[in-house]
Request: fold
Amino acid sequence: MKTHCKSSSSKSARAAFTIIELLVAVGVTALMVSLMLTIVVNVLGGWNRSSGTLTSGNQARTVMDLVTGDLQSAILRRDGNVWLVATIQTTASGWTAATTNAKPTTTASSATAADGSLYIPAFPSPITNSPTTLEDYRFGQGGVWLRLFTTVPDTNASTATISAPRAVSYKIVRQNVTASGSESRYMLYRSELPPTTTFTAGYDLFDATYNGVASVIRTPATDSLIANNVIDFGIRLFKSNASNQLIPIFPDTNEVCFAATSTSDPTKLGAGVEATPKKDFPTVAEVSIRVLTDEGATQIANWEAGLISPPSGTTSAEFWWQIALANSRVYTRRIEIKATSL
Reply:
């Protein structure tokens, strides 16, 4: 009887992979890894966009609720004093951080400009619907500085917390994130004076008390911060005529300041306050706020720190707005003003 023995070398030869099989396996693995990476990147990108939108939306909602409460409780009187005023800050007045590579200065007012921080389109008067959406507006390098007297609900536990008229201000300031840091962010502040201080200063927002650099109405305190990454804050004001049509009274291409009255006393005017504003009382306000996502705020900060450069053929100002428009959202709200008397 013959027996057949198989050598170990022949078994090993049949158990090994060929070069072609290895190449196919490597190719399939690489394809699967690539697909998985693509899925992960898309999921993370979607998560970042969703979380950024959610964060900015929550901040905008908080701001809108505060503005709505203040405007609906606004106090307006025809007594010669200034009870409500809004000023378009065409320069970064009051910013405490260096402004190199910061939000571009104003270069256009009535025509769209990629590098302009001010775009106020003209529209006919009277109107029933604005032909230009509020999302298209740009309210200057520092946005609108809004000041008014309003009644804020409080605890009534003391004279400092009594529910009484007080001066309130909304303003964008570009400041360092930390006291010792170099990174700056755009922040929206809501400042208010206690009722006792307001009563002592008097009810005239053109008074030097409210416009002086030392006043928190003009230079907000740190604890007045209400929203981060706000790069534009604006408002449109309307009144109703005899036919119940809305007539725009702020802003237009000729006026950058609104108040209930003008003043002839130069000592009452602070920097950035126009001496001859529009003189009227609004009945409707449309408020807008442009908020950067976290990714947009990071990109803007990197640009301002000189870590990234604009593409060839793109100016610095244009590049700033490209980042801003791609990574921000505008939120708007229409508010009916039912002013009370004091």
Observations:
- The chain is about 30% helix and 25% strand.
